[in-house]
Amino acid sequence: MAKDINLIIDKLKIMHGKPRVELVFTNPLELVIATVLSAQCTDERVNRVTESLFKKYRTFRDYLNVPQEELEVDIKPTGFYKNKAKSIQHIAHEIMERFGGSVPQDVDTFTTIKGIGRKSANLIVGLAFGKSAIIVDTHVIRLSNRIGFSDKKDPDKIEQDIKKAVPEDMWTAFSLLITLHGRYLCKAKKPECGRCLLREDCDYWMGGKGNV
Ligand code: SF4
């Protein structure tokens, strides 16, 4: 079924408000750190940790100048803190050594840093630098399949399918709204189709699979 993207985005905005990420940050450095911490952790918990973390660490150099054990303690509530501390210090080192302390603004360049996947790179360049970016997280994968933007499972292929269906100037807003929709309404186990404005735009519902 052909999709009216403008209409879908308008409906998503009615349901979820303006496109946004729920991680709190004020600059690219903070978004890089918050993104690493958000793996397997809620945005709410990350925000509680970063409120004090961002006062203590203001530069990538600050993250490099502490023993890994101290950083582990500072980020412990986000879980997997040993791996996350190691990853943060590696990313900080790479950005300092290879990019002069500036976060790369190009996704393909950014993903050459171990620990920065395509989803994270797109999120950071999209939100910190205002670039057009398709952020394929678990919600975007699931909802792309349900609504009918893609029948693929592979995130890179889904990104390509969305690129064909959605005009470039809407990529970032579309991704963020779909993530909000997946988080709050079109949930993994039981989508709340009865409250969803996208029913007529959605292959899952139109195919008779929805819940009311
Ligand atoms: S109709 Fe149901 S499956 Fe389709 S987007 Fe809405 S909540 Fe998700």
The helix/strand class is mainly alpha
Q: Specify Rg, calculated over alpha carbons.
A: 18 Å
CATH superfamily of the largest domain: Hypothetical protein, domain 2
Largest sheet: none
- Count all strands and give the number: 0
CATH architecture of the largest domain: Orthogonal Bundle
CATH class of the largest domain: Mainly Alpha
Strand portion, in percent? under 5%
Ligand inventory: iron/sulfur cluster
Cα separation of the termini? 22 Å
Low-confidence stretches: none
Mean pLDDT value: 96
Question: What is the overall number of helices?
Answer: 12
Helix content: 55-70%
SSE string? HHHHHHHHHHHH
CATH topology label of the largest domain: Endonuclease III, domain 1
Global geometry: elongated
Number of domains: 2
Explain this structure to me?
The structure is a single chain. Helix 9 (138-147) packs across helix 11. The chain has 212 residues and is mainly α. It has 2 domains: 5-19 and 136-206, Helix-hairpin-Helix base-excision DNA repair enzymes (C-terminal) (Endonuclease Iii, domain 2); 28-128, Endonuclease III, domain 1 (Orthogonal Bundle), CATH 1.10.340.30. The longest helix is centred in the middle third of the chain and has 19 residues, at 81-99. The radius of gyration is 18 Å and the shape is elongated. It is built from 12 helices and no strands. The chain has helices at 5-16, 28-37, 43-56, 60-64, 68-75, 81-99, 107-110, 118-128, 138-147, 155-165, 171-184, 203-206. Bound molecules: iron/sulfur cluster. The site of iron/sulfur cluster has 14 residues, from helix 9 and helix 12. Residues 146-147, 185-186, 191-193, 196, 198-199, 202, 204-205, 210 line the site of iron/sulfur cluster (SF4).
